[in-house]
C-alpha cells in the first residue's frame, strides 16, 4: 500500500473556453507541462515539511515522494500530452509506511509483533540502524549462545542489550502485538494546496 493523490485540474472547462487565440494542439502540451511543474513544486514542499512532522534520521524518506526521474516520463508518474484528454500526474510516496502516517491504522500487517525502537538503538551517519541492531538480526540471537561483550535478551516484552564488561543493560525495543498509528503526515492537504496554487501560474507560463 502506498499513499497517493489524484489531483484534478481546477476550472479546466472555463479555462479552455478562454483560449480562443491559441491552437488546439498547444493545449495538451501546455497543460501537461504546467501539471508537471506544479507537481514538482508540490513534492518539493512536501519533502521540506517532512522535517517538521517527523524526527528524520536520514534523507531516504524524502526521496520516496514522487514523481521522480526525468520530467515527462509517464512511467515515473509525470504527465504527458499523450494522455490527452485524460491528463494526470501521479503524486505519491513509494514508502508503504507513509500510508499509515497519512490515514492511520495498526501495524504490523504480517509479522506476529511490532518492535518499537528506543533511543538506545544506535544510528549510523545515514540514519540507518547498524545490521546487528536490526530486529531480524536480534531475533536470530535471542535464545542462542552469544559470544562477545554484548548479549541480547527479552524480558517482559522488552528486548535488552547487556554489556558483559560493564554489566549495564539497555532497553532496545518494546515488543507489542499491535501498535496504533495516528494520522500525522498531512500529505494530501499539502499537495493539493500547493498544486492548485501553482498550476494557474505554470499554465500561463507554458501557454504564453
What can be said about the biggest beta sheet?
Answer: 4 strands, antiparallel
Q: What are the segments in which pLDDT stays under 50 over at least 5 consecutive residues?
A: none
Cα end-to-end separation: 40 Å
Structural class: alpha+beta
Task: Outline the structure in words.
- This protein is α+β, with helices and mostly antiparallel strands.
- The strands form three sheets. The chain has a four-stranded antiparallel β-sheet, covered by helices on one side.
- Helix 2 runs antiparallel to helix 5.
- The longest helix has 28 residues.
- The protein starts with a strand and ends with a helix.
- The mean pLDDT is about 80.
Explain the layout of strands and helices:
Layout: E1 3-6, H1 12-17, H2 26-53, E2 65-66, E3 90-93, H3 96-103, E4 105-107, E5 114-117, H4 135-141, E6 150-155, E7 158-163, E8 169-176, E9 179-181, H5 187-207
Antiparallel strand pairs: 1-3, 2-3, 4-9, 5-8, 6-7, 7-8
Amino acid at each position: 500500500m502506498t499513499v497517493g493523490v489524484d489531483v484534478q485540474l481546477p476550472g479546466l472547462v472555463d479555462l479552455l473556453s478562454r483560449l480562443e487565440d491559441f491552437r488546439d494542439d498547444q493545449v495538451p502540451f501546455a497543460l501537461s507541462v504546467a501539471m508537471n511543474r506544479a507537481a514538482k513544486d508540490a513534492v518539493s514542499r512536501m519533502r521540506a515539511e517532512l522535517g517538521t512532522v517527523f524526527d528524520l534520521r536520514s534523507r531516504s524518506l524524502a526521496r520516496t515522494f514522487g514523481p521522480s526521474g526525468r520530467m515527462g516520463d509517464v512511467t515515473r508518474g509525470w504527465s504527458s500530452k499523450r494522455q490527452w484528454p485524460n491528463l494526470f500526474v501521479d503524486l505519491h510516496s513509494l514508502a508503504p509506511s507513509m500510508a499509515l502516517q497519512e490515514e492511520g491504522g495498526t501495524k504490523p500487517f504480517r509479522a506476529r509483533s511490532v518492535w518499537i525502537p528506543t533511543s538506545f538503538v544506535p544510528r549510523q551517519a545515514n540514519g540507518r540502524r547498524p545490521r546487528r541492531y536490526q530486529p531480524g538480526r536480534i531475533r536470530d540471537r535471542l535464545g542462542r549462545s552469544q559470544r562477545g561483550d554484548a548479549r541480547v535478551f527479552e524480558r517482559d516484552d522488552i528486548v535488552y542489550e547487556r554489556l558483559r564488561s560493564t554489566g549495564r543493560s539497555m532497553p532496545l525495543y518494546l515488543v507489542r502485538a499491535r501498535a496504533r498509528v495516528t494520522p500525522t503526515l498531512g500529505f494530501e492537504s499539502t499537495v493539493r494546496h500547493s498544486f492548485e496554487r501553482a498550476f494557474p501560474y505554470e499554465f500561463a507560463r507554458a501557454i504564453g
